Each structure stands twice: as C-alpha cells, then as structure tokens.
Amino acid sequence: TLHYITILAVLPLMNLSLCTLSIKERATPDYMPFRRVIYCFYRLEAAQGVQTFSSPGYPTGYPAKSRCQWQIRASEENVIVLKFPFFHIEDDCFDDFVSIYDSLSPDDSQAITEKCGQRPPSNPLEVASSGNIMLINFITDTETQRPGFEAEYKAIPKTQVMRCGGVLSDKEGTFTSPRYPAFYPPAVDCKWTIQVCNTPFLPVKFNMFRIKEPGVDVRKCHKDYVEIMGTKYCGEMSSLAVTSISNSLTVIFHSDESYTDKGFSAHYSAYDPSNPCPNTFACRSGLCVGKELKCDGWNDCGDMSDETQCKCAKDQFACDNGLCKPKFWECDGVNDCGDWSDEKQCSCEENEWRCGDGECLPQDVVCDSKRDCDDGSDEASCKSCKSQSCALFFFFKCKDGECVNKVNAECDRVNDCSDESDEVGCGCGTRPYKLNRIVGGQNAAFGEWPWQVSLAYQTTGHACGASILSETWLLSAAHCFATFDTNYGVPSNWQTYSGMQDLYKFDGVQQRSLKRIITHPDYNRMTFDYDIALLELSKPLEFTNTIQPICLPASSHVFPAGMSCWITGWGALREGGQKAQILQKASVKIINDTVCNVVTEGQVTSRMLCSGFLMGGIDACQGDSGGPLACFEESGKWFQAGIVSWGEGCARRNKPGVYTRVTKLRDWIKKETGI
Ligand code: 4AZ
C-alpha cells in the first residue's frame, strides 16, 4: 500500500526552483505496520539576502517518522551559510537528528555535521559549505513533542568564507579558525605566521579548541587539525598552550571535505620577563594558569603553587595543610585534602549518631530496630540478633522468613540463619587462579577477574562488558541492547567471551552465543534509569580457575561511601580514545549519594550510584558499559555493587562514573533468573 499526497508541485527530479515541495506518505510494513513515514523534499536557491525555512510543524511540533530533505544551491562563485536561530529537537540523536552535507546527496564522506538536542540562542549552530551546494536532512523517529528548528540561509562570496591566515606582527593578538565562532567550512587551509620583534619566547594559548570528528584518533589527527611546530592537534581541548622558543611561530589549520566543528580561538603575546604571565597566575614552575584557577581546590600548576597561601571562600573547606577544597567534598569518605582533615571533623555532637550521609541524629536511634538514617546505617552495625519483625530494610531475610540483623550477612562464611540459607549459593566471588581502560587503570593479569565477560556485536567486535552470575546467566547494561537499532536487541547478533584477558587471544576462553536478552521493562533511554540486562547463554559455561561467577549482593547489602571497589573492562583508555586490547582494572571509591546527586545535577535515581574520584583521572569509559563494579568484602568474597552505566565524559573533574545499583534490582534478577 503506497500512496502519495502531493503538496504544490512534485517530482524532485524536475528542474524546479524555489521552494518546490513534495510530501510522500507511505506505509512501512517492515516493523510498524500502522505507522506511516512522511517524506518531504525542498529545493531552495540561496541569494545574498537571508531566506528562511523551518522543520515541518514548527513551532508546534514535528511529526514522528518523517524524512525531510532541503537541497540548497547558490551561484558558482558563492558558498552557502546556514544558521539555526532556533533549534530544539529530541536529545537522543539515535531518534531524531539533523545532518548537513557539503554535497547534494547524503554522503558521509561529505557530512558537515550531525546535530540533535537543544541549542541556546546565544550559541546557535552555524555552518558553511565549501562550494555552492548544501543538503540538510531531518530524520525523526519519536513521538515526543519538540518544536523543531528554524533555519536561515544565504549565499556569500567564496573568497570571504575561505579568507584566513596571514602575517601577525603585533606584540599580541588573537586569531581564529575561519568563521569562528560559527563552524569552519570544509576543505579549507590556512597558515598564520607570527613574527614579533625582540622577544625570546612566543607563547600561544588556545582559549577554545574544538576540532572533533567521528572516527578520528586524536593522536593521529588525520582529518582536520591545527599544526604547530610539527605536531598536529585535534579533538576537544580545554587548555592547549604552545610556546615557541624563538620570536616566530607558524600555525597551520586544515579541514578536509567531511565534518566540521567550531574550530578555535587563539591568543598570542610576546614574552615580557618582567611580567611573564600577563593577566594570568604565575606558577612557581613558570607555567601560567587562569587567575580563576588559583585556590579552586585543583592542582592546576602541577606543583601546587596555585593552591597554597589561599584564603578559603565561603563555599570552600579549609584543609589543615592550607589547601581549600569544595565544601561538598567534606565528609564524603574521600581524602581530598591529602591529610584527611576533610574527613576528620565528621562526627556529630557527643550524644549524637552520624548517619552515613552525614545527618546527625540522637544516639538512641542506633540499634532501636527502626531505620532512622536514610541509608540504614543506624541499624547496619548492630550486633547480630534474631528479630521477629522483617520490616527493616537492612535485615537479611532468610529463606524461612527469619530476619538477621547483621550487615552483609549473605555469603560471609558465618551461618546466621537457623536454616543456613544465608550461606547457600555462595560458590561465587572467589579468584581461584593462583598467580605466582578503563581510564587511569592498569593491565589486569590473566584470571584476575574471572567473572568479566566481553560481549562482541556481530563483526564489529567488543562492544560491552558483562559479568558471570551462573553457568547460564550474565549481567550487563540495558543500554548495550536497547538502542535505536533493533538489531542490538537480537540475541543471535552477539557472542560472549568468558575467561578472556587479551581480546585477540582465545586460550582458555569459552565462547557462547545468547539465547535470550532480558532488558529491564522500566529501562529509560533518556535517563538511563534501570540500566540493567540479563543475558541467558545458549549453552552453560564450564567454570574453571579463570571463569567464575561473582556474588550478587542481597538487597540489604551496604556498600558504604568511601569503600574501594574495582572496575574492569576493555573500554576506551581515555575519553574519545581507542578501546584496550588487554583487560584494564582500576580501583574506585563509592561516592556518597548526596555528593553524587550534586555532581550529576540531580540526574541520579535510586537505581544508580556514583563511584570514582571527584579529582577525575580514573573512571570507566565507552566500551566498559555493562561490566561490573566489584567490591571485596572482608569475609573473603567479591560482590557486584554496580554495572557500568554512564557518566559525563570519562575521568573528568567532578564527573564520576554512574553505575546501576545492583541491590535495588536484586529482586528483579531473582524473579527473572531464579538466582
Ligand atoms: C559509555 O559510553 C560510558 N565515565 C560508560 C561509562 C562512562 C562514560 C561513558 C563513565 O559507555
């Protein structure tokens, strides 16, 4: 069943000029029999004056399942400039996106950019073509009502857009990529020669540097780049500074035919020995750092000289050693000052009890068989006692219904339940293999993390991590499977590798295909809430010294803030970087929930927990998802506290990793697997 609704004239192949539009509507019988896809197509001619177009239904809201195209042409000596004064579509580019091409066909090798989400009017998206043609595609999938976009386009002389580079001889100056802060055009080359008299050094600082392109290794920068003194720079950098030890310097900028970005803005200033850091702070080491970085709690100079002799601000904690740290780091279980002073004064009044989240309550709340602290810590450390009531959250519930008031009673090698059910199913969490990136981690030894699994998608190889729960069940993250592309949810498209250390070595490795993928029914693709999946193997694993299950914590299990746990995976070794070949491990600390909520700006739910370091530097990254956050209990076993889920970038300051909280979903795991 195919029918067309034609609005205005049709047929894109006819040589039609301004604003010719055809909308086709047709059924898509493959996966949504009753959903129609709306197609629209426009041909526009750019002139010197600004003209506009907008997404269908703007500003009320664009329809789901639409495929719209705008082809823009200009006369030969011109290029096309396109600006979006208003842009608000779905946040997830998997669902809805705008892609812009430096050609008339949607050819990836000539893509200028692809965008989704919302942009503030202060930072509108603005791009330029390298020639006299441009194509805009708008693809939508979701039903969510978003206004769409408004676009302005015009033709400008090619010579004006491509103008860049030159000789700079003033004592100081600023230069930028072409059309900055708009996106630079594709296929442009610029060269700046800075030559200043009477200066021994010539420092150049990039205040903004964004030359990001999909599929580019920032160590190679084989596509768009800035080149200074023989080194190519690309990607996104918050602080790039280069100093020439002469009075001249050449800066080259190159953009290829595909994908452009905001580019850069750079400032140079001739070196004055009497004022080596004009308008910045002079570190003892000779480095200049932004004045605002002085006394901010971070060692920006590298020698701590920006963090000494500080008068702490109101929102800062004064460490005993003279450092200032953000106040919300106080009493979070992490030694931020370096001398523990931020963790020392954490007690309450003498007759009070301090809950794990810092709240002070009267002492008699402790072990009164009532949960007074939000985290249950007032009852968690009580002596083991058998209780008649099972109302308490942290009580371990035995199989026969008896409750044990003991923290983390399960699998601790002590029989606490009279039916001994707390020690049943505990053949987990041990590392029998006797041995003689994660960002900021180290290579793991063979057999060191026997529950770690690599999940490989079709022919593209390792995509996510998982952990072994039993011979037939693995635990992973829902977002590895529930994506825009339904193929990721098909079990036969995946292979699992257990007992692996090196992604290219298969000795001792057991490969299994998947029989079933169960993602949590409440998994939310926007918020990553309930990011958990259970994978049933098509054939049981045979446990060996290097293939073992990890223990699942009871829903009452407490992993206190400050506890050190381990993350493992073959994910990217740094943000935007390549995945690891050898399994990486890193130790991270459980972060207090209040702090977690502050640093994620309220984006965590009770199904999530934060772990890592607010200082940054050590974290899970892309490709580690689905892997375990494993914690060693003194009783001698490893328990899985979390599943690698999300985070803002990787290993950034104040942006710890966010994990699915396994205890919260323990009952769901039991319901689905019987484990
Ligand atoms: C990811 O993209 C991802 N830094 C996983 C973990 C983190 C960030 C991203 C945490 O799979």
Automatic annotation (TrEMBL):
<feature type="domain" description="Peptidase S1">
    <location>
        <begin position="438"/>
        <end position="674"/>
    </location>
</feature>
<dbReference type="GO" id="GO:0005576">
    <property type="term" value="C:extracellular region"/>
</dbReference>
<dbReference type="Pfam" id="PF00089">
    <property type="entry name" value="Trypsin"/>
</dbReference>
<keyword id="KW-0479">Metal-binding</keyword>
<feature type="domain" description="CUB">
    <location>
        <begin position="40"/>
        <end position="156"/>
    </location>
</feature>
<feature type="disulfide bond">
    <location>
        <begin position="319"/>
        <end position="337"/>
    </location>
</feature>
<dbReference type="GO" id="GO:0004252">
    <property type="term" value="F:serine-type endopeptidase activity"/>
</dbReference>
<feature type="disulfide bond">
    <location>
        <begin position="390"/>
        <end position="417"/>
    </location>
</feature>
<dbReference type="GO" id="GO:0046872">
    <property type="term" value="F:metal ion binding"/>
</dbReference>
<feature type="binding site">
    <location>
        <position position="96"/>
    </location>
    <ligand>
        <name>Ca(2+) 1</name>
    </ligand>
</feature>
<dbReference type="InterPro" id="IPR035914">
    <property type="entry name" value="Sperma_CUB_dom_sf"/>
</dbReference>
<feature type="active site" description="Charge relay system">
    <location>
        <position position="625"/>
    </location>
</feature>
<feature type="disulfide bond">
    <location>
        <begin position="596"/>
        <end position="610"/>
    </location>
</feature>
<keyword id="KW-1015">Disulfide bond</keyword>
<keyword id="KW-0645">Protease</keyword>
<dbReference type="InterPro" id="IPR043504">
    <property type="entry name" value="Peptidase_S1_PA_chymotrypsin"/>
</dbReference>
<feature type="disulfide bond">
    <location>
        <begin position="367"/>
        <end position="382"/>
    </location>
</feature>
<feature type="disulfide bond">
    <location>
        <begin position="621"/>
        <end position="650"/>
    </location>
</feature>
<dbReference type="InterPro" id="IPR000859">
    <property type="entry name" value="CUB_dom"/>
</dbReference>
<feature type="binding site">
    <location>
        <position position="129"/>
    </location>
    <ligand>
        <name>Ca(2+) 1</name>
    </ligand>
</feature>
<feature type="binding site">
    <location>
        <position position="148"/>
    </location>
    <ligand>
        <name>Ca(2+) 2</name>
    </ligand>
</feature>
<dbReference type="InterPro" id="IPR033116">
    <property type="entry name" value="TRYPSIN_SER"/>
</dbReference>
<feature type="disulfide bond">
    <location>
        <begin position="295"/>
        <end position="310"/>
    </location>
</feature>
<keyword id="KW-0732">Signal</keyword>
<feature type="domain" description="CUB">
    <location>
        <begin position="164"/>
        <end position="271"/>
    </location>
</feature>
<keyword id="KW-0106">Calcium</keyword>
<feature type="disulfide bond" description="Interchain (between heavy and light chains)">
    <location>
        <begin position="428"/>
        <end position="551"/>
    </location>
</feature>
<protein>
    <submittedName>
        <fullName>Suppressor of tumorigenicity 14 protein homolog</fullName>
    </submittedName>
</protein>
<feature type="binding site">
    <location>
        <position position="143"/>
    </location>
    <ligand>
        <name>Ca(2+) 2</name>
    </ligand>
</feature>
<feature type="binding site">
    <location>
        <position position="256"/>
    </location>
    <ligand>
        <name>Ca(2+) 3</name>
    </ligand>
</feature>
<feature type="disulfide bond">
    <location>
        <begin position="93"/>
        <end position="116"/>
    </location>
</feature>
<dbReference type="InterPro" id="IPR036055">
    <property type="entry name" value="LDL_receptor-like_sf"/>
</dbReference>
<feature type="disulfide bond">
    <location>
        <begin position="337"/>
        <end position="398"/>
    </location>
</feature>
<feature type="disulfide bond">
    <location>
        <begin position="411"/>
        <end position="426"/>
    </location>
</feature>
<feature type="disulfide bond">
    <location>
        <begin position="312"/>
        <end position="324"/>
    </location>
</feature>
<dbReference type="InterPro" id="IPR024175">
    <property type="entry name" value="Pept_S1A_C1r/C1S/mannan-bd"/>
</dbReference>
<feature type="active site" description="Charge relay system">
    <location>
        <position position="479"/>
    </location>
</feature>
<feature type="disulfide bond">
    <location>
        <begin position="283"/>
        <end position="312"/>
    </location>
</feature>
<dbReference type="GO" id="GO:0006508">
    <property type="term" value="P:proteolysis"/>
</dbReference>
<dbReference type="GO" id="GO:0006956">
    <property type="term" value="P:complement activation"/>
</dbReference>
<feature type="disulfide bond">
    <location>
        <begin position="355"/>
        <end position="373"/>
    </location>
</feature>
<dbReference type="Pfam" id="PF00431">
    <property type="entry name" value="CUB"/>
</dbReference>
